[in-house]
């Protein structure tokens, strides 16, 4: 009989969430084993957040270098070396990789096993030649591309987020299937780096974002020459020499689109197929592993975090989950996750960032919902930078409770943070309206949007009568 290795925590998956649990627990004195069958750093470092933002940064830099006419700056042409862009992306990955490496984690005292993990029963996990019996197991195996059921897709050499960053030449014409965050980010990046780009979306662009905010990004993409085809159905994809032909039904017409490359960006599916969850008594569905608010599965000795539980599939969500798990497992505290205030962002230019409910979601739950808006067209900093696209949009109850916030515009991902804090601390809209913002900054737009909650009262007839009445008393 093989020896059984005992640990406090067995973490399956070395992506963002798993690494956060392993590092935090080990540094607090726990005995931790980390099992990973693929690359350390998971999807975020190797195929997701890091390479996509590095590619976007190169694309935005290219755009800025040819966009100076309004400032009185002339540029004599632009030379984009896509192989050098590819090298930049992978240099960024390599610069971060040591932080997520086996060596670093072994230095923290974590036992790292490079192997697949499978449950043997409710308590034991097999990893390679080892049998592990931990006090708690944490599943942090992430997600991967969900391939749509399109006839002919399997017959072509399509790209996903795991392969698109390996391109060393700019695609001549890339068709992106899916208009979610990954789809629109890659569309803008590749367009700004010289590719012809078409987005095919079955619904509308950025369907999970507030419609008004999504329109800001949609308008910018179209302005840059990206073809956006919404509410379309892909009938079939056919291989052709040098690329593919996508047969689509768009409204009442049927037409073909020629492409040299096809990128599938239609969403994510949780990774748990190889874990033998049934043997551990862990329930799951196609949407992810089922967890309670403490992130425990149906087996109370097994937790699951990050993309594998579905919902908000963002790196910062996995990091937040890690803290909840550590409090539950190491300190026996019944910590619960509050996912209602999880910010989400799309890193196009302009960006979109949101937290809480959208206007349509809030209207289905509450009565008397108000939408408070302030355009960056009326913000001095935005005008000085000549980037006035977008707005701040705050959703409040009739009494001023903040139900959600959304921003479309430059640096929206940073500007959403005060609204996330306001919702976490259950602050009223009055707190944001009285906030002092430095001038000139884009954050003033948030303050002005909040202040507009009181405009009907402050600028109404009753206030004017009161002011006139008080004037008689010197």
From TrEMBL:
Q: How is the cofactor bound?
A: Binds 1 FAD per subunit.
Instruction: Give all residue intervals belonging to the FAD/NAD(P)-binding domain.
Output: 7-321
Give each disulfide bond as a residue pair: 44-49
EC numbers listed for it are 2.1.1.-
Against SUPFAM superfamilies, the record matches this protein to: FAD/NAD(P)-binding domain (SSF51905), FAD/NAD-linked reductases, dimerisation (C-terminal) domain (SSF55424)
The residues the record assigns to binding NAD(+) are: 178-185, 201, 267
| GO MF annotation, one | NAD(P)H dehydrogenase (quinone) activity
Q: EC top class, in one word?
A: transferase
Q: Could you identify this protein by its name?
A: 3-demethylubiquinone-9 3-methyltransferase protein
Question: Which species is the source of this protein?
Answer: Candidatus Micropelagius thuwalensis
């Amino acid at each position: 009989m093989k020896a059984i290795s005992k640990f406090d925590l067995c973490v399956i998956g070395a992506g963002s969430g798993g690494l956060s649990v392993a590092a935090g627990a080990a540094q607090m004195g726990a005995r931790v084993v980390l099992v990973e069958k693929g690359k350390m750093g998971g999807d975020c470092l190797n195929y997701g957040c890091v390479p996509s933002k590095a590619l976007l940064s190169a694309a935005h830099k290219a755009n800025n270098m040819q966009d100076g006419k309004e400032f009185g700056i002339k540029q004599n042409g632009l030379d984009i070396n896509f192989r050098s862009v590819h090298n930049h992306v992978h240099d960024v990955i390599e610069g971060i990789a040591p932080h997520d490496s086996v060596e670093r984690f072994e230095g923290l005292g974590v036992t790292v096993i490079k192997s697949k993990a499978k449950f043997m029963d409710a308590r034991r996990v097999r990893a390679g030649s080892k049998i592990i019996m931990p006090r708690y197991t944490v599943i942090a195996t992430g997600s991967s591309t969900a391939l749509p059921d399109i006839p002919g897709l399997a017959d072509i050499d399509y790209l996903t987020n795991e392969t698109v960053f390996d391109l060393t030449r700019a695609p001549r014409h890339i068709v992106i299937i899916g208009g979610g965050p990954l789809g629109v980010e890659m569309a803008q990046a590749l367009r700004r780096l010289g590719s012809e780009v078409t987005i095919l979306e079955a619904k509308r662009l950025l369907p999970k974002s507030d419609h008004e905010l999504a329109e800001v990004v949609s308008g910018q993409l179209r302005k840059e020459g990206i073809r956006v085809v919404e509410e379309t159905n892909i009938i079939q994809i056919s291989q052709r020499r040098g690329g593919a032909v996508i047969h689509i039904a768009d409204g009442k017409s049927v037409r073909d689109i020629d492409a040299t490359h096809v990128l599938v960006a239609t969403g994510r599916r949780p990774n748990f197929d190889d874990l033998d969850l049934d043997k551990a008594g862990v329930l799951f569905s196609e949407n992810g592993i089922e967890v309670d608010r403490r992130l425990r599965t149906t087996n109370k000795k097994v937790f699951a975090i990050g993309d594998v539980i579905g919902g908000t599939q963002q790196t910062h969500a996995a990091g937040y989950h890690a803290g909840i798990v550590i409090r539950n497992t190491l300190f026996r505290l019944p910590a619960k996750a509050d996912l209602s205030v999880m910010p989400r962002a799309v890193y196009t230019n302009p960006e979109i960032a949101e937290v809480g409910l959208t206007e349509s979601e809030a209207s289905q739950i509450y009565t008397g919902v108000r939408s408070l808006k302030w355009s960056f067209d009326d913000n001095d900093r935005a005008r000085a930078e000549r980037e006035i696209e977008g707005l701040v949009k705050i959703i409040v109850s009739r009494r001023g409770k903040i139900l959600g916030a959304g921003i479309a515009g430059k640096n929206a991902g940073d500007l959403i943070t005060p609204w996330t804090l306001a919702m976490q601390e259950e602050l009223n809209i009055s707190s944001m309206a009285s906030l002092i913002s430095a001038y000139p900054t884009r954050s003033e737009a948030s303050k002005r949007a909040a202040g507009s909650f009181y405009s009907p009262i402050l600028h109404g007839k009753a206030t004017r009568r009161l002011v006139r009445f008080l004037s008689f008393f010197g």
